[in-house]
Design a protein that fits this description.
transmembrane helix, GlycoTrfase_DXD_sugar-bd_CS, about 425 residues, globular, membrane, two-stranded antiparallel sheet, Spore Coat Polysaccharide Biosynthesis Protein SpsA, Chain A, Put_A1-4-GlycosylTfrase_plant, alpha/beta, about 45% helix, about 10% strand, seven-stranded mixed beta sheet, Nucleotide-diphossugar_trans
Amino acid sequence: MTTTKIFVCPLVIPAKSPVAFIILFALLMFLMLTDNIVSNISLESAAFTQKEDSQSFQTLTVTRNIKSDVVLPLSLTVSTKNNIVDGDSERQNSLVSSLGVREKHGIGKFRRKLPEHEILKSDELTKKFHGRVLEFFNRECEVHFFMTWISKVGSFGRREIMAAESVFKAHPNGCLMILSRTMDSVQGYRILKPLLDRGFKVIAVAPDFPFLVKNTPAEAWLDDMKSGKKDPGVIPLAQNLSNLMRLAVLYKYGGVYLDTDFIVMRSFKGLKNTIGAQSIDVVSKNWTRLNNAVLVFDMKHPLVLKFIEEFALTFDGNKWGHNGPYMVSRVVRRVEGRPGYNFTILPPMAFYPVDWIKIGGLFKMPKDWAGSRWIEAKVQQLKRQTYGVHLWNKQSSKLVVEEGSVMERLMAQNCVLCKHIYSS
């Protein structure tokens, strides 16, 4: 509160001059009123400015928390302030829009440190990672398979179990390792126990992420991310960590990487150093985009090292797919045909026989005789020509497998537990 001091100078006023006295009194009152008004205006202005600054600061704080602390699982619907964001495009547009606001106000250069994530933590369990990998695969495994799971253990559901079942249907003597801290737990063991009880070799192992990227171009990338020199971006962190982890584990150990929404239909035993095309040009028949949902590579393969290098050098956490399918496409386009890189590109029918836009059709039951004929023809085509079917979980995770559908047929033919087919 502002204190107003009034200095009164001694005045000689004739006792018999009431008019002069009234004028002097009115002047003093006017000066006091004016000073009080100015003080109040100043206080109100300062209060308004402070309130506006406080609101602005609170908005920036919320923006930082949303960008850096919230880790969005790959296939979950996210609810923010009761507004449901569902699907890649809406989520990406929303996040990119927020980023644009930050840049407009001069905060686009703000570097956020890599948020704490379970998969990045190191402890006594992760220190045993390398030894557990060597011990597990030293069991006369027909084929070494890897999957990654960075979401909560409770999210590992029927769809993911079906993917694991299909691995063992086609490879009874194969070995499947799921890189996951959350699944490397009592609850995770219970989920996998039905497969273990039938003699299948499957295990969930908490990965040692720093060890996996050690002595690769991604080692410096991870250090820069942790120190805040690089921005993790607005794309869910789990997606980009999975993109890198699959490359790092194949480079260290070699084997087959599969997404957890991939149904295996044929043995991978004959595949070597292979990647699949997602799309081709209808005229030239040349591939237009590759995908990294299925990767088959030997240990220390130079192309996988190039993938890791490209990931680290061109990482952009604000562009969907930039560090995944688009990244492997960029690298292969540069090195294809060069000596020293021996690998095979299979056509879309091998791993991606149904485009993500049309995947819903596989889940529908036939409505008439023509529909039944189409389903039968599609099932036979897939059995003859494909190694498996990528289900594009972001588009199909909420779809119900209807009786008599292509998916019902595929799951029934490629399961080993064969329970709850219609609840996927």
